[in-house]
Amino acid sequence: MVRIATFNVNGVNSRLPVLLKWLAATNYDIVCLQELKTSDEKFPIEAIREVGYGAIWHGQKSYNGVAILTRGMDPVERRRGLPGDPDDTHSRYIEADVDGLVVGCLYLPNGNPAPGPKFDYKLAWFARLISYGRQLLEAGAPTVLCGDYNVVPTPIDAVAPRRWLGDAVYFPESRQAYAEMLDDGWADAVRRIHPEKGLYTYWNHSYGGGYDRSSGLRMDHLLISPSMAAQLRDAGVDIETRALEKPSDHAPRG
């Protein structure tokens, strides 16, 4: 059985101790990282190799950035960059073949302030993802599209839904785009295992340390193709990482 996780690290070099501790403790087979905030040449590949992982990555100085890590082997890159807009320079998508499994790691635009140009870019990027996702489903290979979708799909995915009504992650258009992917056949792994449980992957930092539990959101998702959905055994959140020293504002999802 393959164990897969996704983690918005919010700066791979600044959060490296947290990342390495979590990797060593959990031994996931495949790990997708988002928001690397580093150029390609400064990605900490040697430190990651020391804890037993190979990697491919698509970096960008100070912003964005995605990577796929595989335990005990090097992933085979299939694609970097989402098709549909050759002028898009953001490092938000990378894809690998891992022993016949197609793994897409994505960092969907946040979209704030909304409405406005950033929200328009988010919806256009989402439309490209939906279109490309259909191609992947038609190809028929077992596939996972995981990462920070910057979308809170339903009220159960927020501790206090009304708090986010003016935020792009909870706008109806964002939620509808996510629902469209589910309608196409992608399965939300957490909701398959926990259909009515409030699980969260993001919390605001609190002043003076810690995190604001009332701000919990689920916006990091693992979407799996139908053949993988039939084999799904478990899904959850490694919330313990959120309490470590100098953590990301996200917790890993597996």
From TrEMBL:
Co-factor note (free text): Probably binds two magnesium or manganese ions per subunit.
The positions annotated as site (Important for catalytic activity) read: D220
| Signal peptide location | none
Q: Which residues form a coiled coil?
A: none
GO BP: DNA repair
What residue ranges are annotated as transmembrane? none
Q: Where is this site: Interaction with DNA substrate?
A: H250
Active-site residues annotated for this sequence: Y107, D148, H250
Which keywords annotate this record?
Answer: Hydrolase, Magnesium, Manganese, Metal-binding
Which molecular function GO terms apply here? double-stranded DNA 3'-5' DNA exonuclease activity; metal ion binding
Site residues by UniProt (Transition state stabilizer): N150
**Which cofactor does this sequence's record say it needs?**
Mg(2+); Mn(2+)
Top-level taxon: Bacteria
Looking at the record, the residues that make up the Endonuclease/exonuclease/phosphatase domain are: 5-250
Among PROSITE patterns, the record links this protein to:
AP_NUCLEASE_F1_4
Presence of keyword Lyase: no
Pfam families named in the record:
Exo_endo_phos
**Record flagged with keyword Magnesium:** yes
Family assignment from sequence similarity: Belongs to the DNA repair enzymes AP/ExoA family.
Output this protein's name.
Answer: Exodeoxyribonuclease-3
Provide the species name. Mesorhizobium australicum
